[in-house]
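Revision sheet: structure tokens.
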Amino acid sequence: MMIIPFAGLGVLVGVLITQSPISIAVMIAVVALTGLVVNDSLILVDFVNRYRRDHKNVYRALLRGAAVRLRPILLTSITTIAALMPTALGFGGKSVIWSPMAASLAWGLAFSTVLTLVVVPVFYVLIEDARRALAHVLPTGLLSGEERAPATSHSPSSPDEP
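Predicted:
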């Protein structure tokens, strides 16, 4: 989810470069782009988590995940960008609605793909380091999602009991 603002930055750069107005079509492209970007980062994080379950080393899992998932992430992004280029550039006629939408998707996807391969692993390590640091401070099980048993008190149930 942290990659979504970077995709928005790519859309803004694309709008500025193509000198397109920010319209409803561009906003719809941002919504579509959000799904594409989240999918790319989920593919990477899911692979890292599965590899980490078997090997336990965070850094090795990130390196392995980035190396193995690099090709699928790049290929899907490059083919999507290539498919959007004729519409974005106006081959066959420039549309006032479809060209800015396609350009926004293409620029946003280009930015976010590169940043997914860099920013997601960096944030993954930062979050893991913070989790390890907090594990020394917080009670056991709190960070892992385990529920703690409620504290029992020996207070009387009514004011009349001793």
